[in-house]
Design a protein that fits this description.
The protein has about 350 residues and is an alpha+beta fold. It contains 10 helices and 13 strands. It has a domain of about 210 residues: Double-stranded beta-helix, CATH 3.60.130.
């Protein structure tokens, strides 16, 4: 029998939108001193490609202090942070990618996130949209609250859509508390988990779904982690010919209702970077009007990061931490790309789980 936490979560990671609106200690700003150090780092790395960067160039006093505060908030606080003032204007895409990559290396190791083996993903419906199987990333419609596949997701706004859609965050652990309060009978099924679809980005030797169930909620030593994205679970059920039961649909609907009601909605503008811990925070956004002209399209840069220092304790690292991301060209580091390791399938154990 899976060990289920039956006590409410009372730390900073279980919050409502009204609470974080009142206390904005999750908000940070790039000052002139930070931008000066970014410029110094850019001068130091010269024309070096992203996968070959010497990241020590970005280990500078002001930047390190800023990013340590962000990392602590994302890993051990509310699970999210917002940084304003990252310098976007006046840089080529090439330089901007390397500045963003270097700064984010303070938080974690970047991982590939699409079938192009892209370390940086352009979230847009424009020409810079990468190959990504059957995923709908970047389309103008609203995006429901969900997690991404690595420890942390970071999004940099290069250009927002003209009608300025807000971003949304919600505490997955507040949702857990509400399930515990109103529907505790659903927790065993959520702890049992669901297969996830691989969105047609799996390799030739891999199955189109995970082949194993990933718990929506799991716990280790009382620390609860969430792995929930209905957009990946639903297609797996359909592909397997095992549609969600009415009870499963109802609990997912309840989760959606609770997370929407308690979410934090905020403007997301050029030069803003948002961070979300994918074990504790759900992220999404409102829809926006489709724009035909390329120069006016919404463009974000996205990084999927693995925490290096003090990763979250999880019930099973291969399943909970890496069971979603390691398939096909997804889940590789820059070092893996440089060494060509991404050209062979991810290593798996007898149950099909990634070997850590």
């Amino acid at each position: 029998m899976t060990d289920i936490r039956t006590e409410p979560i009372a730390d900073a990671s279980a919050w409502r939108g009204s609470e974080v609106e009142a206390d904005r200690s999750w908000e940070f700003t790039c000052t002139d001193a930070h931008i000066d150090e970014l410029e110094q780092a850019l001068d130091q790395i010269g024309d070096t490609s992203l996968i070959d960067l010497d990241l020590s160039a970005f280990r500078r006093p002001a930047l390190s202090s800023l990013m340590d505060g962000i990392r602590r908030e994302v890993q051990h606080g509310r699970g999210f942070a917002l940084l304003h003032g990252f310098p976007v204007q006046g840089y080529s895409d090439y330089d901007l990618e390397r500045l963003y990559w270097g700064l984010m290396s303070h938080v974690g190791i970047g991982m590939t996130q699409n079938c192009d083996a892209g370390l940086i993903h352009y979230v847009t419906d424009g020409k810079r949209r990468p190959q990504m199987g059957s995923r709908g990333v970047g389309r103008p419609g609203p995006v429901g609250l969900h997690i991404d596949l690595t420890d942390c997701v970071s999004l940099l706004c290069m250009q927002q859509a003209p009608d300025d859609p807000p971003s949304r965050l919600a505490s997955a652990l507040h949702v857990y508390n509400e399930i515990l309060r109103h529907h505790p009978e659903a927790l065993p099924r959520l702890y049992e988990g669901f297969e996830w679809d691989r969105q047609n980005e799996h390799g030739e030797t891999e199955t189109p779904t995970t082949g194993y169930r990933v718990p929506v909620f799991s716990q280790r030593d009382g620390v609860v982690s969430c792995r929930y994205n209905r957009g990946w679970i639903g297609p797996a059920c359909e592909r397997l010919g095992q549609p969600l039961t009415d009870a499963e649909k109802n609990i997912f609907d309840f989760m959606g209702s609770v997370s929407s009601e308690a979410c934090f909605e905020f403007p997301f503008h050029t030069g803003d970077i948002q961070f979300a811990n994918n074990f504790t925070v759900l992220h999404g956004r409102a829809g926006h009007t489709e724009v035909a002209e390329e120069e006016h399209k919404r463009v974000l840069l996205r990084l999927w990061l693995d925490f290096v220092d003090e990763p979250r304790p999880v019930a099973h690292e291969g399943l909970i931490r890496y069971g979603l991301v390691r398939h096909g060209a997804l889940g590789w580091t820059a070092a893996d790309l440089a060494n060509g390791r991404h050209r062979v399938p991810h290593r798996r154990d007898a149950a099909g789980l990634p070997i850590v």
